[in-house]
Design a protein that fits this description.
The complex is a heterodimer. By secondary structure, chain A is mainly α. Chain A is built from 13 helices and no strands. Chain B is built from 16 helices and no strands. The relative contact order of chain B is 0.12. Classes of the chains: A mainly alpha, B mainly alpha.
Chain lengths: 318, 314
Amino acid sequence: MESKNNWKAWLYLAPVLILLAVFTFYPIFNTFFISFMKNYNYITGSNQGFTLKNYTDILVPGEGYIWGVDDGSMFYRVINTGLLNTVLLTFVTVPLSIIISLAIAIALNSIKPLKKLFQTIFFMPYVTNAIAIGMVFAIIFDTQYGIMNFIFGSAGHPWIAPNMWTGETVNYWSAFFAICFYIVWHSLPYKILIFLGGLQNIDQQYYDAAKIDGASRFKTTMRVTVPLLSPQILYITITSFIGAFKEYNSVIGLFGSKGGAFDGTTGPTSMQTMVYFVYDMIAKNKVQLASSAAVLLFVIILIFTGIQAKVSKKRVHY
Amino acid sequence: MEKKLYESSYADLELVLKDEGASVEARKKAVKAAHVVTLTITYLFLVFMGIIMIFPFYWMLLTSVKSGAEIKQLAPTFWPTMGFRFDNYATAVSRLNFPILIRNTLIVGVISTLGTVVTTIMAAFAFARLEFKGKSFIFAALMATMMIPGEMMVISNYASVSLMGMTNGEPVGAFTAMIIPFMVSIFYIYLLRQNFKQIPNELYLAAKVDGKSDWQFLWKVMVPLAMPTITTILILKLMGTWNAYVWPNLIATGHTELYLITNGLRESFNATENYDEYGAQMAATVIVTVPLLLVFIFARKYIMRGVSRAGIKG
């Protein structure tokens, strides 16, 4: 349209651009700078020059470091605990939740009676408070009286907290199972909704063609439904990867604001994630370490998103 | 459509089967049986998954009315056999300091929601209707920020608001810090822009002819037409404040009178292994969860549409 609209458009954008400049763009650069600062003090905003130490502290293990042994170093907390937990959680929960939600969406799409009711039930976890429902899961997985131990017949098994009678400590993989269960449960609704939307847009004629060809239901699903859903699958994969790398609320909800305490012989001593470390460092007045960990996380997410976008170019059917 | 197809494939089948000397009726029956089996398996699967989905809600409600003695039974009961203990709710409300938490959450939620809606409407209008240099570049740059982990911003923003003395427990400063940075949402701008774009250009030209300014057109024509999407944004944003934990927790650390509802919930019940308290703890989570579920039941349409639109390219 006419050029006289030009300056007016900027007026409409001004509130958003100003807010973003102050609270999004500036902080990105600032965090990057802080991550190189020596003894940054966030209360006065002062520092004692620049250094690479914030990165070497978290990235380089100390002399004689043994993998998996808590020597109190930042390397143990960030790489050996935070990054390890984050990566494990991501690679277990993302594929698992995508497969389950896809199966549910396909099942939902193939029924008529009770469809609305099921849809509502499957969407319920989306509108819940992550912290609140995490506390419910903590009770479900309770060591002494939890329903999980009743179902599995494993009385007194410490899923997320030690057994206070026998003193049995928490096995890392039990805690890992509990948190994966919770994360997958909580992440299903959104994925089901997106997949269901995609399924409803698939032209019925593809299915008719498959039927005439005598393809079995399973074959039709694998050869017709899944390829035609690939844009949604890609979208969900990328957003869930980014989300999983930022896992934090679920840890707080399930293990309380300490991140749990496990025996350490079967894995890290806590379920702290990268983001957990970032917030913990902010709270402990070590903002420069929080910054270097956040930059590291950002770089990892960027690389993963890049790889996925590249791979998907060959695989996604539009 | 579906039925016709079945019929036609049956007709074809009949010819084939006749050649093979097989009974057409038996074949028809087999196809039908297979269909019933698949349908049964589908429903069983959905019921099983549905139970898993709904179970934590049931367990939360159930535990919230159980007594400590009943929680401590070795075999968990699926119904409160020792009677309903509604006093758990009274305990929960008094522990939570409920009035203060609600007040804080409403102050922060209402102001930041209204602010977000205003900034979103203006920006979406600029992106959908106005022409200016660098429009597509700015839009792409905004979209790209959605990929950046929020922690990058949180660190620096926390340092900034601390420098301004907003984290030392003074309520006006603390609430400002909780509200202002969250008065903009790229995702909602994207959502509303899509909606604005669907409004026909003829309306805009007609308004121009009537001598209406852009500003009047936006608020008198576009906003009423896009009300469903704006309602979606209002609901999702309010729910977001209700669920907010991380940032308010940083701002209000050490000042319980500034907590929002979720911070209050987490900090009031952090001690584990106190089984007599589990009932009250679950009563508190019910109190925090039920408003969300009520909103969901009454605004299901708006919420699901807003969420599902994210997955559609455009």
